[in-house]
Amino acid sequence: MAPITTISSLPPELLSSIFLFTVSHSPLYELHSRSSRTSFVLSHVSRYFRVVAHSLPPLWDNILVNPGLLSPLKDPAALLEHVLGLSSAYGRRGITFSWRVSIIKTNPLHMSVLRSLFVLLLAHSHLWRSAELELPVDIAPLLARVRGRVDKLEELNLACYSNSVGVVTGFEGARALKKLGLLGSGFRMAFPKESVRWIVDRRQGLGAAELEVEDMPQLERLESIEWSTRIGEEIRLEGLRSMIVSDAAFSGTLVVPSLTELTLRPNRHGDSDLQGALRAVEASGCALRTFTATPNAFLLPILDLSPSLEELNLSFSAWQNDHASVVRQVFARMAQEPRFLPRLERLAINRCERPIIGGGEDAECFLGSGFMDMLSTRTRSGSALKSVTIDVWGMVSRECWGEEKLKRLRSFREGGLDLCLRANDFGESKRFI
Q1: CB–CB of 392/351 below 8 Å?
Q2: Pairing state of beta strands 155-160 and 242-245?
Q3: Residue 98 burial (10 A CB sphere; 0-12, 13-18, 19+)
Q4: Which of 30, 76, 107, 252 has its CA 20 to 30 A from that of 320?
Q5: What phi and psi values does residue 292 have, to the nearest 5 degrees?
Q6: What is the distance between the terminal CA atoms of the chain, rounded to a whole angstrom?
Q7: pTM, entire model
């Protein structure tokens, strides 16, 4: 009879793989949930399991702290201190944690527990590598205590929704900080601008509009709702590669020679001021590879300046009369001019607020002869085009498309083109191709 092999006799390399797989589906060590304390359970099976578990930093350095759910526990502060001790001893890479205040109670006992837990986290700030903080106004000023202690911090995501918080301080010395995320309203943030490479700024109000990106020499990615340049102002960002911004970013002159990805958020009218973006592309001489916007008359000049473009996303949040004309022109030039967008691999048209499928001039701009000619030319010529996706709001009955047209469209798919045509009318969504 073959010898029986128990799990305790497995080599440490194999047992480590099993442990890592076990926690991969729930990477956060959720203090408030017994079922998610997988690392703790594994380390208490046997001495051998504990040695292996303690040798794996990913089991200990990713913590979720939700003080609202921790409060009912017998001694939440002792539990948090114990887990932080384990992270300190076995994490090695530094601590990654999320502080999420999903339940806010105004009674003094709850606020006392919340404050004591936060103070414990601050005491271990010298170990922070990545931090996600949702801050009630009462504890935001406590962050000043981390000043000079966050040398390891590489990523910080901070949310604060109180207008009474002016400037969040404490992170001025975080020289390793590479990614900064800001969410909320009415607050400013003090941080070392020379090291940041990626900013995701979803604040609303003056603090976001006055983000001083010109003082960030390492900045590579910028996502902002309200950041703006001033008329007559020129800002040069040599290393910026990716932008997700609104029209206001192009009120002044923006020079971004390394820019390869540009997404313009639609304004309150459901449109994009592409004239400002065109000025930036012309002034920068950048080689866009990905471009997302609501099109208007300035789209084609931008595309003419972007022969390296690989992905084009035309997004309509509110359909306007000139949209059909612009889209027709794009299709026509793709069909007739091989040198127009020669490297384009992915084309997507998304969202319309009025039915456009099923007849009429608007339907023709997507599914008329120009669209068919573009697909036929680009697939026959062996161009770079690999994927075309049209996802719109409109009628979903099969008769709207026509069986002959569907048959021809399916032939493009059979020829290797990843073609997807989908429509929905709020009550039903259907993929036709």
Answers
A1: yes
A2: unpaired
A3: middle
A4: 252
A5: -130, 130
A6: 58
A7: 0.82
